[in-house]
Amino acid sequence: IYLQNRMLEGTGMILGLRTRMLGYRSFSGFRSVTNATVSNSSVDQAHITQSKRIDYLGDGGNNPDTSVDDRIGTDTHELYRMYLDMTGTKEPFDTLIVVDRSTSMTDPMNSVDTQARYLAVYKALNGTAGRQGLLSKLVGFHPENQVAIVGFQGYPGYPSGDQDSTVIANWGRSTSVALSNIQPPYNNGTNYTAGLRTAGVVLDQNQSSRKKVMIFISDGVPTFAFVNGVRYGNGTISGNNPYYTRDWTLNYFNSWIGKYPKLPIYTLGISSEFGNSDNLSANPYVLNHMSSQTGGFYSHVADSQALERTLQKIVDDTKLSLVSINDQLSQYVSYYAEQPDVKVVQTNRQTGQVTTLYQNGAVTSQGVGILQSVTHTAVNASDSTGKVDLNFVDNFKIDDTYTYTISYNVKVTDRAYEEKKTSGYNAHGDSGTDYTGNSTSSGQAGFRSNKVASLTYIRNEQPYEKEYDHPVVQVDTRQFTLQKSDSKETNLLLENVRFELRLSDKKTVFASGETDSRGNITFTDLRRAKTYYLYETKAKDGYTLPEDPWTVDVAVDGTITIRDQLGYTVSKSGEQYRVVNHKLYQLPSTGGYGPAVYILLGVMVITLASYLFYEKRKQIA
Q1: Which of 197, 246, 305, 434 is deepest in the core (most CB within 10 A)?
Q2: pLDDT tens by residue, 387-434
Q3: Which CATH class is domain 48-88+320-473?
């Protein structure tokens, strides 16, 4: 960062000129400068794949991830198993490394690590025996990745020109750089703006659609700066020079970055003295600004090991961290607390090997260091019954090596049955939401299993959220048709006979209706493993009205049995259950004796019996 402590010839005039032009005054603290609003607005989420699938457990198949369908006789017709998975992807990106070559880079890292700063950078880029360098890591991360390197300094012998920066390596896949290209020339200051200007030229030469990343390395504050193509500053940290060059550099950067709004910049201050906010010559204000405005980060690096760790972190930041899967269930399914069988697995995409990370309510030994928590939270809301959350360990990095899957059991709710009966299904399953070998969801009518399911994560210091697709569930119901006919003339079908199908309390009406012209009435949406009672509430004129109901039993397997008032099973003809009705007794309209004869005979028999009984008692007396 420094020159020998002397004023350059003519510099005082230049500083005075800039003071008048910009209206600057002497001050002791930082002042606000023009600060263009710059942010990394990229919302590209191509760096992750995810899917949500569903398996119907009532279809007789054997799901390998739960034992709830293994027991003989277990009722699974209302059960489903949810699957949510995610896989990171290695997105190609190109990296531009901008390196400070000021004379102070020949100073040691610190009093203990006496290695020159530029040499530490050289080794970090190239690697050492048994240690992979940053260049090798970057190009090895993805076969399309490319790297370029720019060096900058501040030569005191001219007021402007291109000598303050140079292209050390243009875009390519080289894994090494010559030491002579990193080693600083003698007696040079620090010109961030020169490095930025050449960096812009190099960035413009790269016309690929790959993401671009910049790493900016310096050991001190700027001591030169370009303003409108002319260089100002004296190359030292004496007097007001650090104030002016700082503000000029900030203004230059704010204008420059507007051309590269999606470029994250990672800045490294590699001096042990860097980070002293009370000392302007060691304050990383500009480096902090460059990173914070672009979605990168600033790191103070005091030794060689810290330098390598920070550069590794930059590579790791292209992976995913702070990953969470959040599944908020809809009102149509609930977490099957009786036996949820929650399971989280890690699948190697190359070998297919599956490792269980969570099972039986706990993180396994293989899951330690990967999973932070798996939780279920019940809620009582009109549109949700609860949520399931999977949180990975904060600093765990995810790339494309593995697929992570969480699965658990759910059960359809009463709400699903009610809405199916009154309104029918209200959604169709998104494409690709069926579990292997199942066909219950994709393109099928049903109810959404989740209100919303999302994946949240951090990549390159930026937060992202991506929603999962929506599978659907159905309710497995039954129906029956009743046919009403005359007790003697079975071909005489009775219409307009009214029925009510009531629930087990024999009061709540589940459904009602009247027979049609063919004597038929159909009841739908009956639940399995339930008993209903069928009441005849209005008979056809001239027919008796039964006081007691028929009993309708729906077995677990869906079989329907109807029993009459005496407990006899109602016969079934084809798809219809046949019940009959009896006519009321009527006096003959022609004046004939009809039943009066039988009544008279009965009276005579009773009278005779009474007389004989009386005579016998009298004889005994």
Answers
A1: 246
A2: 999 999 998 988 889 999 999 999 999 999 999 999 999 999 999 999
A3: mainly beta
Q: Are the beta carbons of 219 and 152 closer than 8 angstroms?
A: no
* Residues 203-239 pLDDT 10s: 999 999 998 999 999 999 999 999 998 899 999 988 8
Find, among 214, 215, 231, the residue nearest to 223 by Cα: 231
Q: What is the 3-state secondary structure (H, E, C) of 94-140?
A: EEEEEEECCHHHHCECCCCCCCEHHHHHHHHHHEECCEECHHHHHHH
Query: What rounded mean pLDDT belongs to the chain?
Result: 86
**Residue 37, C-beta contacts closer than 8 angstroms, at least 6 positions apart:** none
Give the residue among 247, 144, 233 at the shortest CA–CA distance from 189: 233
Q: Tell me if 239 sits within 8 A of 27, measured CB to CB.
A: no
Identical fold between 48-88+320-473 and 477-581: yes
Between the CA of residue 215 and those of 218, 297, 305, 382, 481, what are the distances in Å?
Answer: 10, 10, 17, 50, 75
The two three-digit tokens of residue 189, written as one number: 């200051």
Model pLDDT, residue 19: 28
Q: Does residue 591 carry a pLDDT above 60?
A: no
How many beta carbons lie within 10 A of that of residue 32, not counting itself?
7
Topology adopted by domain 11-32+92-316: Rossmann fold (3.40.50)
Q: Output Rg (C-alpha) for the chain, integer angstroms.
A: 42
Give me 395's structure tokens.
């600093």
Report which of 552, 568, 571 is spatially closest to residue 560, judged by C-alpha positions: 552
The residue extents of the domains of the chain are: 11-32+92-316, 48-88+320-473, 477-581, 592-621
Tell me the CA distances in angstroms from 66 to 340, 373, 584, one per residue in order: 8, 20, 60
Residue 566 to residues 285, 548, 549, 570: CA-CA distances in angstroms?
93, 9, 10, 11
Q: Tell me the CA distances in angstroms from 553 to 158, 258, 416, 563, 576, one per residue in order.
A: 99, 73, 21, 8, 15
The two structure tokens encoding residue 543? 């027919």
* Encoded tokens for 262: 């999606």
Q: What pLDDT, on a 0 to 100 scale, did the predictor assign at position 584?
A: 86
